[in-house]
Structures are given as structure tokens and as C-alpha cells.
Amino acid sequence: MAFRIKRIHDDASADDGCRVLVDRLWPRGISRERARLDAWLKDVAPSPTLRTWWNHDPDRIDEFTARYRAELDTEPNTARAVTELRELAARNPSGTTLLYGARDAHINHARILADYLAAGPGD
User: Fold this and answer.
1) By percentage, how much of the chain surpasses pLDDT 70?
2) Angle between helices 76-90 and 61-74 (to 10 degrees)
3) pLDDT score of 121 more than 80
4) In angstroms, rounded to a whole number, what is the distance separating the alpha carbons of residues 92 and 70?
5) Are 109 and 99 in contact, with CB atoms under 8 Å apart?
6) Could you tell me where the beta strands, DSSP code E, fall in 46-104?
7) How far apart are CA 83 and CA 99, in angstroms?
8) Quick one: DSSP state of residue 62?
9) Which domain holds residue 104?
10) What is the pLDDT of residues 40-89, one digit of tens each?
11) Which of 41, 4, 18 minimizes the C-alpha distance to 118?
12) Which end of the chain has a smaller Cβ tally under 10 Å, C or N?
């Protein structure tokens, strides 16, 4: 399964395939119509505690990645959301785009999530 990531503030396009918001909070300035979502999986996002600790600090990205991957593996609601996301992607052969609201295209949880999902279950 191939997962793309895209900032939700960018325009939707036909290549997006299934569009899934993977943030816990609704992004400011985006209407539901403009978002053109197929799903919003809040539970696949980092926990509020982890998100607050990280605060998008580039110096903490390695530790954040380890903690976030641990949540993806062990938190029951998060693990269910990961399964739901994988199933959704399997039903959409045109691909799946993970949408996020962060400003930084390189340092964000969606990139970590896409890498996690690409590795497959249990990796």
C-alpha cells in the first residue's frame, strides 16, 4: 500500500485518492467542503500529551518518532485506528493521502505515520 501525505491547506486533487485527515484537531481555516475528506481518523494522531511534549521541536523528532510509533503499536484506540486506516487503504486502489495541518512538510507526524504504515503490521 502506498500512502501519500499532503497538507490539508493544499488544494485537493484527483491524484489524492482516498483523503484521510490524521490530526486529532480540526485544522483552522478549512471548511468541511474544502477538505473533501473520505475519513477523519482522530485516534491515529499522536496523543494530546505526546503532541504537547513534542511541540513540533525539530530537536525532539527522533524521540517523538520512537514515542509515537510506540503509541501506534500499543494504545488500543490508536491500534484500532491504524487497522481501520489500513483497511480503508486496501479498499482504495487509487491510493490514500494522509492529510495533516502542520506547517512543516518534513517534520510532522503524518510523515512518521506514512513510514510506519509502509513498513507493514508488526514491523
Assistant:
1) 97
2) 90
3) no
4) 27
5) no
6) 96-100
7) 17
8) H
9) 3-119
10) 999 999 999 999 999 989 999 999 999 999 999 999 999 999 999 999 99
11) 4
12) C
Handedness of CA 58, 62, 63, 68 (dihedral sign): positive
Q: Are 94 and 17 in contact (CB under 8 A)?
A: yes
Q: What DSSP state is assigned to residue 9?
A: T
Q: How confident is the model at residue 39 (pLDDT cuts 50, 70, 90)?
A: very high
Which triple of cell numbers denotes residue 101?
A: 495541518
Q: Hunting for cell 500500500 — which residue is that?
A: 1
Q: Which of 25, 64, 61 is nearest to 41 (CA)?
A: 25
What's the distance, Cα to Cα, between the start and end of the chain in Å?
14
Contact present, 102 and 64 (Cβ < 8 Å): no
The cell for 92 is: 482504495
Q: Parallel, antiparallel, or unpaired: how do β-strands 96-100 and 39-40 relate?
A: unpaired
Q: What is the value of pTM for the model shown?
A: 0.92
